[in-house]
Amino acid sequence: MDRNQLIGLLLILAMFVGYQYLVPKPPPEKKPAQITKTTKPAPGSASTAAAPLDSAAARTQFGDFAPAAVGEARDIVVENPEVKVTFSTLGGRVKEVLLKKYKTFDNKPLLLVDAKTNRTVLEMPTKTGKVDLHELYYQTTSQGGSVSGQPQVITFRANAGNGQAIEQSYTVPATGYAIDYALKASNIDNVPATAEVRFLWEDRMPQFENDLSNNRRAATINYLTTKDNFDHLAENESSNEAVVEDPVKWFAIKHKYFLSAFIAQNTQLNKAKFQTIVDLADSSTVKTAIADVSIPLADIKSGKGQFRYYYGPNDFQIIKEGVAPDFDQNVYLGYSILKPINKYFFVPVFNFLEKFIGNYGLLIFCLVVFVKLLLTPLTYKSYISMAKMRVLAPELAVIKERVGDDMTKQQQEQMKLYQEVGVSPLSGCIPVLATMPILFALFQLFPNLIELRQKTFLWAPDLSTYDSFIKFGFTIPFVGDHLSLFTVMMTISSIAYAYYNNQTTPQQPGPVNMKAMSYIFPVMFMFVLNSFPAGLTWYYFVSNVVTIAQQLLIRNFVDETKLKAMLDENRKKIAAGGGKKSKFQEMLQKQLSAAEDARKQAEEAKKRAKK
């Protein structure tokens, strides 16, 4: 590095540090103000008594709905085999949702909706002003209990003067996680025809998985517009916000493996604003997700206020149909070019194997074997290409000895040899490149497979996250606070595979020592994958071992003596026929010739400059 480069780097560093300390930071984002409750919970009671409310104050705040502003809050619990839902007569809303088949990472009940961390506002315009329908007390005849056979309907009704009424109905299915919801307003007159009901949902998302940092990156809000455009807030560890111009069909507050969603069935959600807020100092909250939308009041008055809540796992098999249009996009299956591989191959195969194999470590092993069997023709072709290179190794060594360290000349002579014997240098690369989409597809699929969540294998208590075989008690840069044994095993097997390949493949001429790089890459990936799911690194480890075994098996069926005889025969035929070049060989030779000419011109220019 010369003096000017050093000064430039120091100036850039100074500018960066100065920006961090001298440029004022934007003010922190304000969270929506908490709603003041009109009730005070009684200790040890599921119901709450209404605090005395001055009639004039009630009239001012709730208008015609002032009679419904006081009452007794009572919980109604309804459950099916999957969920236990607690409704409250205060607000006629969902107060708590327990997912019965899942636990948190520390083995506590998984409350997807909790009154302590979750709040909603349902603000409706009336002739006397706006009223939050979730602050009213509702009447109901529902008693709750277990749903058996047929869906159970829970209806809440709040009456006001002049025949005005609000009715909310929930239909809890006999099985499943989707709860139908109907909102109807009767005799709400003297309001503009374009008036809308505001629905605000704030969720201070608790931690359900062990890796808080990973949880924060995965937590977001997904949504689908009426133009069928699926989008989401950025998945990172910072606060994000989006104002959506088009109406929205549904939105989902997404944890890493769970969803709380609101779906419009016969209407649409307007003026949508979504926000996620991160407080890095608060380890009890992953993110605060806020969804703020508006519903046409005319639809609610006409009976079109039909909606659906989904409280459940982000499981592709469960949400792929029947919940909402394109709802399966909540499960991230990779980039658009890789998504079909996961959606139409890996996910179906994985779920098929689930029916027969209960141990998910063995299931992944079987998945590897199945994929490797499908790719056997490509593996065989790649091995044959390497075998041809080994057969040609003595001639390549002679070329190197003859031309010395001139890389350009080596490559030219090597291409000429390949042309003489009819070998394409790409024949060994194409089969390897063809397997890359599979590796990348799995790289994006495994972190999103809820099927691996809390599935144990060997020393790993949860295949959906890293196995912390060694806990350091402190953080090491690029490594973290742990060491994953599955990742170490994957790295060792990758190095072993590289060693095996390097023993059977001659060194190619060029400025980069590819044999050395084949050892460096696995070590680099160890740092990257140390915090990735144990299921993924176990897959890569098994894949490496099976590939080595596969190549050793193929080696028994390949006679390199016959292969050399075939290449010699090709040499004679090509020599007799004039030697037809492939397009790739022609292009590469032109580039090498151009490089050689440029080198000679540079040497001549140096000689002239010396004179």
From TrEMBL:
Superkingdom in the source lineage: Bacteria
InterPro entries, per the entry: Membr_insert_YidC, Membr_insert_YidC_N, YidC/ALB3/OXA1/COX18, YidC/Oxa/ALB_C, YidC_ALB_C, YidC_periplasmic_sf
Record flagged with keyword Oxidoreductase: no
Main location: membrane
Residue intervals passing through the bilayer: 360-380, 423-446, 482-500, 512-532
Residues annotated as domain Membrane insertase YidC N-terminal: 76-346
Residue ranges of domain Membrane insertase YidC/Oxa/ALB C-terminal in the record: 360-555
PANTHER family: CYTOCHROME C OXIDASE ASSEMBLY PROTEIN COX18, MITOCHONDRIAL (PTHR12428:SF65), OXA1 (PTHR12428)
Similarity field: Belongs to the OXA1/ALB3/YidC family. Type 1 subfamily.
Record function comment: Required for the insertion and/or proper folding and/or complex formation of integral membrane proteins into the membrane. Involved in integration of membrane proteins that insert both dependently and independently of the Sec translocase complex, as well as at least some lipoproteins. Aids folding of multispanning membrane proteins.
Name of the molecule in the record: Membrane protein insertase YidC
